[in-house]
Structure prediction request, 271 residues.
Amino acid sequence: MFLTYYTSMEVRLFYNSVRPGVGMKPHREGLRPLLPQHARHCPVLEAGSALGFLVYPPLTEKESFHIEFQGEGRYQFIYSLKKPTGDFEPIFSVTIVLPVGTIGMIKEDVSILSRKTAMNRNDALRLMRAFIVPEDLATPPGAIAMRGATNFRTPQGWDTVYTPIFNMIDRPVAPMLVVRVETDWYAHETEFRYVLQPGEGISTAHNMPIGQVFFVPREEITMRDCTNEELEEIRRSKEEFVREKEAQKIMTPHGLSYSPHYLRQSRSQRS
Prediction:
């Protein structure tokens, strides 16, 4: 009899350099509320959603921001604070205009929108840089780079993969560039690079994840064909699984039937 022992891997956290300690910590989450009801009983779907950790922006409960791509190298960033009524009031905006071609300066026009704030231009630009990376805008055209509240230092030989949020099927969903970084030696500040069309924008809140990360070993993978004996074992195990799955079906209050056999088998492998 062979026993499998599962051990935890330690990933160390360090925080947004402009706003350390602000924002929700990463966590696993297998549920996606907008999925159809029958998907709630699909353990492989939930396991896919829970791969790695959701990452949040460096916002407090009273803050939000919106960034929009207006086309032709022009972006608008708006920072807002929650009023006692619960509505959000815009505090300042920054219009970013990128140079045509590769020569020229990035223009950053700041507008203070609230009389209640003592922020000046420098304060607004510094705060904006806690949330986005202006130098990474428009790579490719329409791209924005949103900073996370949390950064990661992985063990030796492990990388961090930065992805959009898995199994978010509500439309429209902006595409995102997936990157893999050797975070065991490189102090990478978490960024999620979405690509917008002209007129599209993304709004954020402290409890809205902006992306997902998971960790992979940096080791070579080899592939080979199964032997006849291995193919026979696969066939036998598949037939046994189908029989057990059919024998363990459960009816939900909504009239849907499902089998918990896969989930039970998965848990037994870890015990």
The helical segments are 43-49, 121-131, 228-247, 261-270. The chain has four helices and 16 strands. The two ends are 14 Å apart (CA to CA). The mean pLDDT is 89.
